[in-house]
Amino acid sequence: MVLRMCNAKGLVVRSIDLELMPYFLAVARGGSLRSGAGLLNANYGTVNRNVQALEASYGVPLFNRSSRGFTLTEAGEALLPYALEIEEKAESARKRVIGLDKSEAGLVRFSLPPILAYTIMPPILARFHLAYPQIEVEMRITSTVEDINRDTTDVSLRGAMEITENVIARRLFAMAIGLYASKTYLEGVLATAEPSGEGVTTLGWPEPSKESRFLLERPFPHARQSFMVGDGFMRLQLVREGLGIAYLPVVFSKVFPDLKPVPNAKQFLGHSLWLVLHSDMRKTVRIRRFVDFMAAELMALKKDMQGDFYGAATED
Q: How many Å apart are CA 42 and CA 44, to the nearest integer?
């Protein structure tokens, strides 16, 4: 395929090799060969070789190289919008074609956060496999919100207050959050702690959040935050090890009987659970089967996930 385009100086750019374009975009986004390789799940040498091949085909450097990383040259800046347009059209074409698929077989790429992946999801996936053995599931377990429109995943399970992207988003319900400790921490440290929280250790978030503000304000304003953990599953495990108290989804007290609610700490509604997919994928049979199955299984957990709020008129 040959395309003609001009940069700001009128330089004609020809013979775009579409197979090399993802490497150019990955380095442009990552700012280095290694970061670009990470975005593509490729090795450093492959990315370097393909970027050099693209530059050789144009006869101009696309990146300035320095110890601080890669930045786009003038030619690279001129190429970037065309490369993004090519990527967008290729992804749209892929989703449109896949969306016509009528088969209950094939691959579903599924992303979800670790705290749900390692706790409630395994038995649900086991039941899905029994129901649809011809559908393969590729899981991406990440705390990063996957961009559905960038073709990194087909279906995403998220905890969020709202979804603002141009996607199909099915809201299930808001999850209740409670303050929890291990049985040993509850019977030991909390049983002898001051009412204000002196002597109590909390596990919070690296950045300010609604949950961490609750933790500081009530019921232990003088508690000391000793661990800041962005990964929810790690925070859960640290609580179970008796390192302190933390706000967690109330459903985990059903999954882990050693988790105990902290007395006099009220529950509150946090993020809602959402199933998110690209609009072009909603007609794909295997995607629809997967989303419907996940929605039904998660709705069956609503009572455990909402705790004291289950059935309340104010919810939803």
A: 7
Of 1.10.10.10, 3.30.710.10, 3.40.50.2300, 3.30.1490.480, the CATH number of 5-98 is 1.10.10.10
- CATH code: domain 103-316 is 3.40.190.290
Beta bridge partners of residue 107, listed in sequence order: 136
pLDDT in tens, 179-213: 999 999 999 988 888 887 788 888 877 765 544 55
| 102-107 LR contacts (CB < 8 Å, sep 24+) | 102/285, 103/285, 103/286, 104/132, 104/134, 104/135, 104/285, 104/286, 104/289, 105/134, 105/135, 105/286, 106/134, 106/135, 106/136, 106/286, 107/135, 107/136, 107/137, 107/138, 107/286
Alpha helices in the chain (DSSP H): 21-30, 33-40, 44-58, 74-98, 114-117, 121-131, 183-185, 191-192, 210-217, 232-240, 252-255, 285-299, 302-306
Rounded CA-CA distance 146/110 in Å is: 10
pLDDT of 17 > 90? The answer is no
Angle between helices 21-30 and 33-40 (to 10 degrees): 120
Rounded mean pLDDT of the chain? 82
- Cα–Cα distance, 287 to 170 (Å, whole number): 13
Enclosing H/E stretch for 166: none
pLDDT tens digit string along 109-132? 999 988 899 989 999 999 999 999
Domain boundaries of the chain, sorted by first residue: 5-98, 103-316
The answer to whether the CB of 108 falls within 8 A of the CB of 287 is: yes
The one-letter code for the residue type at 313 is A
pLDDT at 245 > cutoff 80 = yes
